[in-house]
Design brief:
single chain, mainly alpha, rod-shaped
C-alpha cells in the first residue's frame, strides 16, 4: 500500500511526463503550421510569377519588377 506522499510523487511524475508530451506535440504542431504557411506563401508567389507569363523563372520576374521600378523612379525627376 502506498502512503499519500508516495502517491503524490507518482502522480506528479505521471503528470509531468504528460505535460512534456503535450509540449512536444504542441511544438511539432507549431512547426508544421509554420512550414505550411511558408509553402503556401511560396505557392502564391509562384502563381503570381506564372500568371505574369514568366513560367517558373522567378528571377526574370524579379528582374522585370526591378527594371519597372527603376524606370518609374527615373521618370519622376
Amino acid at each position: 500500500m502506498f502512503s499519500r506522499a508516495q502517491q503524490l510523487e507518482v502522480e506528479e511524475e505521471f503528470y509531468s511526463k504528460q505535460d512534456a508530451i503535450r509540449e512536444r506535440y504542441a511544438c511539432q504542431i507549431e512547426d508544421a503550421r509554420r512550414e505550411a504557411l511558408i509553402l503556401q506563401e511560396e505557392q502564391e508567389y509562384m502563381t503570381k510569377v506564372w500568371d505574369a507569363g514568366f513560367g517558373t523563372d522567378h528571377e526574370a520576374y524579379e528582374a522585370y519588377w526591378k527594371r519597372t521600378f527603376e524606370y518609374y523612379e527615373t521618370q519622376r525627376d
